[in-house]
Structure formats: C-alpha cells, structure tokens
Design goal:
Elements (H helix, E strand, L loop, with lengths): L1 H4 L7 H29 L8 H15 L2 H19 L5 H21 L2 H19 L5 H20 L2 H11 L5 H4 L2 H14 L12 H12 L2 H6 L6 H22 L9 H17 L6 H16 L8 H15 L1
C-alpha cells in the first residue's frame, strides 16, 4: 500500500496491476527452478513417472507456499494480462497470452489443487465466452460453448482427487465425507454456529480455531485434530466468528467494486466468481498470501477514476472508507 498512502498523483492502475502479475509469474518461475533442481539432484533411484514428478512438484510448491494460494495468485495474474491485452489485440499479444494460459494451466494441473483447477476452468470458459461472442452468434455460439464445457469438464475429471468426489455422487455406498474431509469440517462449523449464543455477532474474531478443535475432539475426528485443520471455508468461518452481521459486511465489501465507476469493473466481473470459489473452499484470509491480492484489488478498484488513475482529492476519503470495510 506504500504508493497509495504516499499520494502519488496519476499513478496508472494498469502499471500497478502489471507489476502484481509479473511478481506472481516470477514467483512461479522460482518454484519451477527449485523443482528442476530437485528432479536433477534429488531423484536418485526414483522412477520418473508422472505421479512421482507431480508429487515432487507439489512438495516444492508447498515447501514455499500453500499451493491453492499460489495458484489463485497465478490465475489473478492471468486475468490481469487478459485485461491489459484485450483492449488492443495484436499477434504478439495473442502468442504471449496463449503461452501464459499454457504455463498457468500446466502449473495448476501439476499442483493437483482441485479448487484451482475449477477456477482455471471458470476463467478459461469466461474468456472464451467473451471473445467468441465477437465473431460467432446464434446456434454456432451455443454449440461452441457446449463443446468447450465438455472439454473443460473432461480435463477437470482427469484429476484423481476430483474423480473421488465424482465417485461419491455416482456410488451410493461411497461416502461424500470420505471423499473430502472438508465436508466433515463444514459439518463441525455449522454445528458451532447452531450452538452460538449470539448468532448475529458470532463468537468473536479468532475464536473458530479453538472451537473447531473442541468439536473435532467431541466427534473423534482424529486426522483433523492432528493436522489442526482450519474451517476451509471463509464464509463459514466469518459466520462462526462474526455472525450474520459480519457475513453480510464481508459480502458487501466483495460486492463494492461492482458499483464503483472504475476500469476494473470488467476485470472484477470475471475475477469475483473465481474469488468466491476459492473463498468457499479455503480460509483465504488466514494467510498473508491470500489476503494481500484481495485487499490490493479492492483498493485499486475503489481509488481509481474512470481513466484508471488515482484521484488525489478523493483518494484519502475512499482509502479510509475502503480500508475500514476491509478491516
């Protein structure tokens, strides 16, 4: 936030977004370098099968940062480049963007983060939906989107962890709770909210972690106790800690940029569904890497005028209001 609160005049919004996107891809390249070193130096007498390579990649990523959060930053960066390039496509920009899609998709697929895979599919489908509309209409448009949906679903189903959940829906003897422990965690969270003496205000900030551990112990949820699992749902966590009022405040903050005149509106309409998917399956605000991109984009959306520049005479007022709401 340094360049915001120091009052730079006319600091371009696009440049700020570009630096964020470059930083995200730079971080991903560092991880790939460490991964390459691991493959060369640490794979003695280990078969180089796809499963082993994928597990090695996941270990490298998780050693540096949580994989879902890193993938969320990458997806945000990919959307930023689409936002920057889409105003004036050129052959060079098309090639760069296709390369970024391939790089991001491979990175996400190797991490085997289901939420990130789903988010990547949503992002890709939204971009195709928007771009194809310029050239195709009517039944051709519907047919092309149907083919894209089937193709994206096929790619998503190639993940073994996604397959486990699909099996739980098709096989009556297969437990959904066993497919993913998140469902059992959410059940514990809902039980805590039902027992809350003041559901309007919740238990208070930071209370969910200890309360969850007690509920895990009551249910003999051993793996959750040993791993100290969080809520894995930001909306549910806010509901438990801050009650109904806090949840409505949070949803209001996320909705705010949709009602502000900002060049980020087009970006935000695509980014918001991806953000909500990640918030629904992860406690994004429990880590800095999950918090800063959300806060940064909310601030950039609220502090810029229609031309994408920061306006000094309204900057401080908006900065105070938006910072308070985020807090």
């Amino acid at each position: 936030l340094a360049f915001l609160i120091r009052g730079y005049k006319g600091f371009p919004l696009r440049r700020a977004l570009k630096f964020f996107a470059l930083g995200s891809y730079g971080m991903a390249l560092v991880m790939l370098m460490v991964f390459g070193y691991s493959l060369v130096m640490d794979f003695n007498d280990v078969p180089r099968s796809f499963m082993n390579i994928s597990m090695c990649f996941q270990c490298v990523v998780n050693m540096i940062v949580h994989r879902t959060y890193m993938c969320f930053d990458l997806l945000t960066a990919l959307l930023i480049f689409y936002f920057l390039f889409s105003d004036a496509w050129s052959r060079r920009r098309v090639y760069i963007f296709i390369g970024l899609i391939a790089f991001t998709g491979l990175f996400v697929f190797l991490t085997d983060a289901r939420i990130s895979l789903l988010s990547f599919m949503i992002l890709l489908f939204s971009i195709v939906l928007k771009e194809v509309r310029r050239y195709v209409s009517g039944w051709h448009y519907i047919a092309l989107l149907s083919v894209c949906l089937v193709g994206l679903f096929f790619v998503l189903s190639q993940s073994e962890r996604v397959n486990n959940i699909l099996l739980s829906w098709n096989d009556a003897s297969y437990s959904l709770a066993n497919a993913d422990p998140r469902f059992r965690i959410w059940s514990c969270g809902l039980e805590l909210f039902k027992k809350c003496p003041n559901p309007l205000w919740g238990y208070g900030c930071g209370a969910a972690k200890d309360l969850l551990q007690a509920e895990y112990a009551r249910r003999n949820f051993v793996s959750a106790i040993d791993s100290h699992w969080e809520m894995h749902n930001q909306f549910l966590e806010i509901l438990v800690e801050n009650g109904v009022f806090g949840l409505f405040m949070f949803i209001g903050v996320l909705s705010l940029p949709m009602f502000l005149k900002s060049p980020l509106q087009r970006f935000y309409y695509i980014w918001l569904p991806i953000l909500c998917v990640n918030l629904f399956f992860e406690s994004m605000l429990s880590r800095a890497i999950g918090t800063y991109p959300i806060a940064l984009i909310l601030l950039l959306a609220g502090l810029s005028d229609g031309m994408g520049n920061f306006v000094p005479n309204v900057m401080w007022k908006r900065f105070c209001v938006i910072s308070f709401l985020i807090a």
